[in-house]
Design brief:
By secondary structure, this protein is an alpha+beta fold. It is about 40% helix and about 30% strand. It folds into three domains: about 200 residues; about 110 residues, Lipocalin (Beta Barrel); about 110 residues, Lipocalin (Beta Barrel). The chain contains twelve helices and 18 strands. α2 packs antiparallel against α3, α7 runs parallel beside α9 and α8 runs parallel beside α10. The longest helix has 21 residues. It is elongated and about 90 Å long. The termini are far apart.
Length: about 425
């Protein structure tokens, strides 16, 4: 009786549609593979049988496998199919040509299996790039992007995050190059942005002012850019890289949602041109940081000025704020209030509260009789005891460590003014 139930269960897991009798030998081999090894394609003779049947039968075999994997999907089944279908595709290409439905359907099935495979495989940019290029249609590329976006959210190490960024940087530019719909490009941009935000939490020491010099004297004279300001903003804008002409206090170009791959910063997608500098069209940049020497080398490019290299050094950063003894485990609600602080030589009040029109959103300001600086992006890294306050234009930022909470919150940190390329020390009075 037990054996009968086992046979009935196995039979129920196979498709029941009519099929070419010529496929019977191959199907019996598949049934044997599933019963004995828990996979579908374990016998190389299956391919030999498929070589002897006609085009319609080969196409029908693809539908047979599609139905079968739905009823028997396991990690072993998916891995086996991913490996064996890659061997089978060239056979169909040679016998039928991929202008025929049998080969086209097999390739689309392989694309579907590939998406199932990446869900369980180790994170690998090389694998994802290969699969992305192999997708026969735009819908397959988008499906892969969505699957990998979900997988990226589960990345926990810098190595995994870097692998996801490598893939996404390729995918967004590849899709743009072959004229996919814009939403595919945006999906790749989002993965770069999200992984960069995640990696920033594990990789501090890059924010600050970099004094730079352009190698091309004519470009240097025209652009007058002498500082590159790197700062973290909120989840939407992520990493922001401002190219500044400090003598005129102008941010020439601001790259929001920039990427950080290892020690290399690069423009990702969202670019703002200062209203006074619209001659800088379609800019991009790439800048590599040597963390030991604090030096940078990079490329800046625009339609008018072409590509120019630059180099420089980190002049001042906020890394000291992360190294001081900050109070951990706090919540933003504990920091609401009005506090006296000294910003450089200026005495000011730091006001932290919630927006009147949306009590779930925090906002802050620095104010005295002569100045008012507002911060619409307020966040707290509770694990590090670091409060970050950024203005709406990503031009000014407070990075404050909460150094005491016993009576009233006490702060110690820095104020970054990007247009002026200045950092001032901040401390509670």
């Amino acid at each position: 009786m037990k054996k009968l139930f086992l046979i009935l269960a196995l039979v129920a897991s196979f498709p029941t549609f009519a099929r070419h009798a010529s496929l019977d030998p191959a199907i019996k081999m598949v049934e044997s593979c599933l019963a004995e090894q828990g996979v579908l394609l374990c016998n190389d003779n299956i391919t030999e049988v498929l070589k002897t049947v006609n085009l319609d039968a080969r196409g029908e075999f693809v539908y047979y496998l599609k139905d079968l994997v739905v009823k028997n999907e396991t990690e072993k089944v998916v891995v086996n199919l991913y490996e064996k279908l890659q061997v089978l595709v060239p056979v169909y290409e040679k016998l039928d040509g991929c202008t025929e439905w049998s080969c086209r359907d097999l390739k689309m099935f392989l694309s579907d299996v590939s998406i199932r495979y990446v869900k369980i495989s180790p994170i690998s940019s090389a694998l994802y790039v290969e699969l992305y290029k192999a997708q026969a249609v735009q819908a397959g590329r988008y499906g892969l992007l969505m699957t990998l976006s979900e997988k990226a959210d589960k990345a926990t190490t810098l190595a995994e995050m870097d692998e996801m960024i490598k893939f996404a940087e390729f995918a967004k530019d590849y899709s743009r190059g072959i004229k996919d719909e814009y939403y595919l490009y945006q999906a790749g941009v989002a993965i770069v942005r999200n992984m960069t935000v995640a990696a920033l939490k594990l990789r501090p020491g890059h924010e600050g002012i970099y004094k730079v010099t352009f190698d091309n004297a004519e470009v240097a004279k025209n652009l007058r850019i002498d500082n590159v300001i790197v700062m973290e903003s909120n989840d939407r804008d992520a990493l922001v890289v401002n190219f500044v002409a400090s003598d005129s206090r102008i941010i020439k170009v601001s790259f929001k949602q920039a990427g950080l791959l290892g020690n290399t910063f690069f423009s990702n997608e969202d670019v703002y041109n200062n209203d006074n500098n619209q001659e800088i069209q379609s800019p991009f940049f790439k800048m590599e940081l040597d963390r030991e020497t604090k030096t940078v080398k990079g490329i800046f490019s625009s339609a008018r000025y072409g590509k120019s290299t630059f180099s420089g050094k980190l002049d001042k950063s906020n890394i000291s704020v992360y190294g001081q003894a900050n109070v951990e485990g706090l919540e933003l609600a504990q920091l609401i209030g009005k506090f006296k602080v000294k910003v450089g030589s200026y005495e000011m009040n730091l006001v932290i509260g919630k927006r009147t029109d949306d009590r779930s959103i925090y906002e802050a300001s620095l104010v005295n009789n002569n100045a008012l600086i507002t911060f619409s992006k307020v966040s707290l890294d509770s694990a590090k005891g670091i409060l970050s306050l950024v203005d709406s234009n990503n031009e000014r930022k407070l990075t404050l460590g909460v150094v005491d909470i016993s009576n009233s919150p006490l702060f110690k940190g820095q104020f970054l003014n990007a247009p002026q390329a200045k950092i001032l020390d901040v401390e509670s009075k």
